[in-house]
Design goal:
The complex is a heterodimer of chains A (407) and B (300). Chain A has 407 residues and is α/β, with parallel strands linked by helices. Chain A is 46% helix and 13% strand. In chain A, a hairpin with a 2-residue loop joins β4 and β5. Chain A starts with a helix and ends with a helix. In chain B, α1 packs across α2 and α4 crosses α11. Classes of the chains: A alpha/beta (407), B mainly alpha (300). Chain B: It is a multi-pass membrane protein.
């Protein structure tokens, strides 16, 4: 009986709220995104559809360059001119939620019929969680895996059905496929001095049990030593140290590298440029059967704490979240919770990346991720250029990280 | 009221108004950012207190953090190497070219104009071109050196720690030569021709004329060009961003790029400000010499 009254009351409140919304002034939501209006333009598509469903809500989208994102958001928070809703890259989310810049969604989620946070993959979920509260909803994710050129495998007498599973196999395969006379490297990846280097290295370390807060563990050291060996023996181009993932993968597409580590964002370009049978395998682990780990990319939709229309903003977040089954085919993101993707593009590659999502781990989470990431990529580069051995370089990185985390 | 208007139109008021405008401009666009920057280097700053003026004062803590970073001294010495080598070569080559184009031959002034093309190219575009030249696997330079048999193995110009800084220096020397050449040409044009003729009559050879006439007459121009060169070299950012991003392992990192990395990549704005204050101190010294060398120009 008590329950029934409660439902009735809630229902009445709901009706009241709806009439209030109907009579009130049209609500305007300011949304910041890094999407382009021209290409897939996730937020532009979502906003159009949402406004058709909710004519009383108007969405103004402002596009921010990804490179300027932090600056623009900084300025907005400092001057109190934050938007209602924004896209935030996943490692940067804790930075904002820890400082109280974002709206705590937990009470809204408790009443939501659309969002069930327990379904979200652990990686994306931990990127929006801070101190037990939820500060955003993933819009989609991405992760990395091992691309390989099946034609080159065959030509070298390797079985393309059996891509390398372990670090040792990866090394051996890369060695067999490297052919300096033909300008072919065995492997392409990125170990540059910014976020991408850390992004690529962390899964290797994490699959051995290490992580950013104990990055000098033996497993991480062994992982870095494998990287060293690959660079020293020129199984990957020395330019790996100054190249991002996209540039590195261009050499895979041009058949100047037989394998490459990168994410699903490569697929549109690869299907145009790569004139060979390209396949994808899960990232190798140190030993067969080890725990898997993969990197987590893409980000979250968040509501800023100072939003004047948190309810409407949350409705928009809910709507975007509910569209997860479409994100792969239309926008190239991997779903952040298990969905049934109908007729996915690049079905074989999708299957591998979708599985890899289960192992995708968040970077951090830490409000100081940018500094931590820099310490790790500096350590990686010191070891790869032999300014220090892997153990020393990672121990130095750990000391720096300890200083950041303790502060 | 009318007295004030009249004084504004032509009188002391006009002078004061003009000076006040210039002063206001300087205060708003130069002094304020400078002081703001210096203040930040003594404060605890994060992204969220960026808009406040009152922030926790931490004294020299940011500077101590800075000096304690393991890469501090290597970045400072990189900066010194970068500035010195760039200036020496830009000046020497620029001076050589200026003297060359000072000679009377057909098309001299057109050719000199063509050199300016390099200066017109935005540094970011120049960076993209040099990246293509220096690329390790498929770079133009490696291709040329290998096909002429000068080297047998590819040189990874941008990703070898011992070389990367020098690659950026080469690109920056190329970028700075036209500027040096033009300013020095202007200086050369200011030396009266009849002096040379008189000296030639007195039996001074070309070397003698260069050492005893051109160089002394050009002293203040060279001083000014050097000072401006130091400032421009310390400003060079785009080439680092497009060629090496300071890597690998900070081997080609310099103060100006580091300051940006600290502030806008690590969001460690206070330490980034501290780096720029150090640079500021150095630039003030250079600017002092610049002002002195141009003052001599007026007197001369």
């Amino acid at each position: 009986m008590a329950n029934f009254t409660k439902t009735l009351l809630l229902g009445a409140a709901g009706v009241l709220a709806m009439t209030a919304a109907a009579t009130a002034e049209p609500v305007e939501l300011n949304v910041w995104t890094i999407d382009r209006q021209a290409d897939p333009g996730y937020n532009y598509v979502m906003a159009d559809e949402f406004m058709k469903l909710h004519p009383e809500i108007k969405i103004n989208i402002k596009r921010v360059e990804f490179a300027d994102w932090a600056n623009d958001v900084m300025r907005a928070v400092a001057t109190g001119t934050t938007p209602d809703v924004a896209y935030v890259d996943n490692p940067n989310t804790p930075f904002l939620s820890a400082k109280g810049a974002l709206l705590d969604l937990t009470p809204y989620l408790a009443e939501s019929k659309i969002v069930d946070t327990s379904k979200i993959f652990p990686g994306p979920l931990s990127s929006v969680t801070w101190d037990g509260k939820i500060y955003g909803l993933p819009r989609g994710s991405n992760t990395i895996a091992l691309y390989y050129n099946a034609d080159m495998f065959k030509a070298a007498g390797l079985d393309p059905e059996k891509p390398p599973q372990t670090w040792a196999e990866l090394y051996e395969t890369a060695k067999k496929l490297t052919d300096p006379a033909k300008n072919v490297y065995g492997l392409a990846f990125s170990a540059n001095s910014n976020e991408e280097g850390t992004f690529q290295f962390l899964p290797w370390a994490q699959s051995t049990g290490a992580d950013f807060d104990h990055i000098a563990d033996d497993g991480a050291v062994r992982a870095l030593e494998v990287w060293q060996k690959i660079i020293d023996e020129k199984l990957a181009s020395p330019d790996t140290l100054i190249r991002g993932q996209y540039d590195s993968m261009a050499s895979f597409n041009a058949q100047n590298a037989a394998m490459g580590i990168s994410g699903p964002w490569e697929l549109p370009r690869m299907s145009k440029d790569a004139k060979f049978d390209f396949r994808v395998a899960l990232l190798p682990t140190e030993k067969a059967g080890d725990t898997r780990a993969s990197a987590l990319g893409e980000g979250n939709n968040v509501i800023f704490a100072k939003s004047k229309h948190p309810k409407e903003a949350f409705l928009y977040l809910e709507y975007m979240y509910s569209q997860m089954p479409r994100v792969w085919n239309e926008f190239g993101f991997l779903p952040s919770y298990p969905v049934e993707a109908k007729d996915p593009k690049w079905a074989d590659q999708y299957a591998v990346f979708a599985e890899s999502m289960k192992y995708a781990r968040v970077r951090g989470p830490s409000p100081d991720w940018a500094k931590i990431s820099k310490a790790i990529s500096t350590g990686i580069q010191q070891a790869l250029t032999h300014q220090a051995d892997a153990k020393t370089a990672l121990t130095t990185a750990q000391t720096t990280i300890d200083g950041i985390v303790k502060k | 009221m009318s007295a004030l208007l009249r004084s504004l139109r032509d009188g002391r008021g006009f002078d004061v108004a003009l000076a006040a405008l210039a002063l206001a401009y300087l205060l708003v666009f130069s002094a304020f950012p400078l002081i703001y920057n210096i203040a930040m280097s003594f404060q605890e700053v994060d992204m969220f207190s960026l808009g406040d003026l009152v922030r926790p004062f931490v004294g020299l803590a940011n500077y101590r953090t800075l000096f304690a970073t393991p890469e501090f001294w290597s970045i400072m010495s990189n900066t010194a190497i970068f500035v010195i080598l760039c200036i020496v070569f830009q000046l020497a080559i620029g001076f050589g070219l200026a003297l060359f184009f000072q000679q009377d031959f057909i098309g001299a002034s057109y050719l000199r104009g063509l050199f300016l093309a390099a200066w017109i190219i935005p540094a970011l575009v120049a960076g993209a071109i040099w990246k293509w030249i220096f690329a390790g696997d498929f770079g133009v330079l490696n291709y040329m050196l290998m096909s002429t048999g000068i080297i047998d193995e590819k040189i990874f110009w941008l990703s070898t720690p011992a070389i990367s800084l020098y690659s950026v220096i080469i690109a920056n020397i190329w970028l700075g030569i036209p500027f040096n050449m033009i300013l020095l040409s202007v200086g050369l044009a200011g030396i009266p021709k009849d002096m040379y003729e008189a000296a030639a009559l007195d039996g001074a050879g070309p070397w003698g004329r260069f050492w005893h006439m051109t160089l002394p007459m050009m002293r203040s121009t060279i001083g000014a060009v050097t000072c401006l060169g130091v400032i421009f070299t310390l400003q060079q950012f785009d080439l680092f961003a497009s060629l090496t991003q300071g890597g690998p392992a900070n081997s080609s990192n310099v103060a100006q790029y580091w300051s940006w990395q600290l502030s806008f990549q690590n969001y460690d704005i206070a330490t980034g400000s501290a780096v720029s204050v150090l640079m500021l101190g150095f630039v003030i010294v250079v600017a002092f010499f610049y002002v002195r060398s141009t003052r001599q120009e007026y007197q001369a």
